[in-house]
Every structure is written in structure tokens, then in C-alpha cells.
Amino acid sequence: MSSPTSPVQNGIVDCDIHPVCPPELLKTFLPAKWHEMHDLYRGASKGPFFGLDPYAGIEPNISRRDAYPPGGGIPGTDLAFMQEQYLNPHNVEIGLLQPLSPTGGMQRHLDLGVAMASAVNDWQLERWSQEDNRLRTSITVTQDHTEAAVEEINRLGKNPLVAQVGLLQRNTEPAGRRRYWPIYKAAVEHGLPIGVHVGGNGGTPPMGNAGWASYHVQQHQLTHGGFTAFAMSMIMEGVFEEFPDLKLLLVEGAFTWVPSTLWRLDKLWETMRSEVPNLKRKPSEYFASNVYVSTQPMDVYKNPADLRQIMEWVGWDNLCFASDYPHWDFDDPRYVFTFPLSAEERRKVFSDNARKFLRL
């Protein structure tokens, strides 16, 4: 393990903390008409695997063994234990909540998904952000029910404890398609950025059109592929031309893929720009002005200078620290960088960039 760079001295903003709502608790926030279905099925995911994750590497609960609360329950369910184990000793000043499951975001049953999303949002606010206002709520929405997603953003968008609109990476259609634009419009109107976390079920294999991978190690490596498609669709479909104030954070897809992707995309745009005449700037320029990427999972190079070079290519103004607590591939803020950062670089990555994204 490398020597710590001690970012905790100045406090940090962590863009990826996972709370988990136990099913029995979620039910208390759901309207009564959904209780029977919740008791019988617990949801109707678009994924093909009922009641379990597709890869053994994700089980159980994708979590650190030491993150199980001593009082019982699974990691991410006990605020007091999270404060004791992570928030306080690491001097987390702002933690962005990213609930992954359960949510309503990827439900096949859209009306149930809308109800679950509202329940998850009310649970985040009541049991986490109001109890510890360092923890800011992400508005979970049902992406494929655009009208309901807009209503949910309008319902909660003015709450000062709400920090972003949270989406999952895998939509039914590419993220830049116009069916999703009302969500982006509502976010801009409320001054909220869009945070996109890896995951979700689009109903098809995450690795493309060749079927499901055999191993979690394959899927884990390819998280960046989904983010490449997500960001590219947002740029090329003209989302940032239509909504120039919209900010997007890509969470848990790493960042070393960014330079080469944008280099190639700029080159292709130069030769085929007649296909997208509405774009007035290079793709890399939209990325620089509108897109942030989280550091997690941090790639570890044999030569730390190589990683520093890539970070400079991405841009120090576009990187935000993320820990992924309490998951097993958690990045400890004390050790995540294997090379020294200048005071300005550390301040940007561990605090200022996220504050700018969150408009704090």
C-alpha cells in the first residue's frame, strides 16, 4: 500500500456513497395499493435474473466484509455505523447518496417503478439527509416514464437537501434520445445536475450484442463501455447544445478511457460533421464544459507518472473523487492516489470540482 496523501486534513466531497433501503422499510413509504405486489414479487426488473445478481462476484451485497453493521442488517442500512466507519474518520463534508437497489429506475412495471422511486426518495430524505445533512439526496426517477420522472423532479427539486437527479447507466434507448429530454429540461429548470451511476437493466446484456458475460470480472472491466456510449449519445444527439447549462457526472466508470475516446470522436466529427450539423463544437469541447467523471474505480499503473499524464489529458477540472463505500472495491481517500498531488490538484479532485458540479 502506498503512503497516504492525507486528503482528510481538508475534508472531502464524496460523489458515490451507497445507502440501502431494506425491503420491509421501503414498504412503509409505498402507497398501500402496492403492498401486496411488493410482498409477492419485490419488483419487476428488466433483468433476466430474478432474486439474485447475475454474477457471483457481486454477491453478497457487493460489499466489504467489515461494512456489515454490528447491530445487524446489510452494509448501507445503518447511518450511525456509516458515520463511525467512514464519514467521520475520513472527514467527509458532503456525501452524495447513490441508491442502487431497490429503486424504481429500471422497473418493467412502470407504475410500480414510479411508486418505488418516490418511496426511495422519501426514505433518503427522511432517514439519511435529514438525519445527517452532509448526505445529499439523489432524486431517483423511472427513466422510461418521462412524464412521471418530470413530476418527481418538480415535487422534490426545490428541497435544499436534494443535490442531483440520479439516473442509471443503462436505459432502454441511448441516453441522448429525445424521449429523455424532458428529464434533462426539468433538471436544468431546478438547477440540478444529472448524476449517472453504472448499472441498471436495459433488458439486454451489458456487453453488447454477443450475450451475457461468463464472469463478473468481465462486466466490471467493461463499465466504461456503457459510459462511453452514454456520454457519446448525449453529445452527438445534441443534448448539451439544447441544454448548455446541463451538467453530467459519470459515476463508477473510471476515467482513463476518456482521452482516447474523445480523440477518436473529434477526428470522426471532423470528417463526418455534415451528419450532425447542429453540433457547433468538437465533442471534446462539449465534454470539457458539461461532463465530469468520478475517480472510482481508480486504475493502478505500474508507473504512476502514466496515470498522472492521463489525468492531465482528462483535465483536473473534470475529475471528482468517489469512494463507492461500502462496496468491496471501495477506494480509500487516503491511499487512492499512488503519486503526490499538488495542493491545487488535491483541492479540485477532493472538493472543488464536486462543489462546482453540485452548485454548492
In words, what does this structure look like?
The chain is α/β, with parallel strands linked by helices and 360 residues long. The protein is built from 13 helices and 8 strands. Strands 1-2-3-4-5-6-7-8 form an 8-stranded parallel beta sheet, sandwiched between helices. Strand 2 (92-97), helix 4 and strand 3 form a beta-alpha-beta unit. The chain is globular and about 55 Å long. The two termini are 33 Å apart.
Secondary-structure blueprint:
Blueprint: E1 12-17, H1 23-29, H2 35-41, H3 79-87, E2 92-97, H4 110-129, E3 135-140, H5 146-156, E4 162-168, H6 181-189, E5 194-197, H7 216-221, H8 223-236, H9 239-242, E6 248-251, H10 258-272, H11 283-290, E7 291-294, H12 304-314, E8 319-320, H13 343-358
Parallel strand pairs: 1-2, 2-3, 3-4, 4-5, 5-6, 6-7, 7-8
Largest sheet: 8 strands, parallel
Distance between the termini: 33 Å
Which strand order does the major sheet show? 1-2-3-4-5-6-7-8
Helix percentage: 25-40%
Gyration radius over CA: 20 Å
Structural class assignment: alpha/beta
Give the overall shape: globular
Give the total of beta strands: 8
How large is the share of residues in beta strands?
5-15%
- Average pLDDT figure: 91
Low-confidence stretches: none
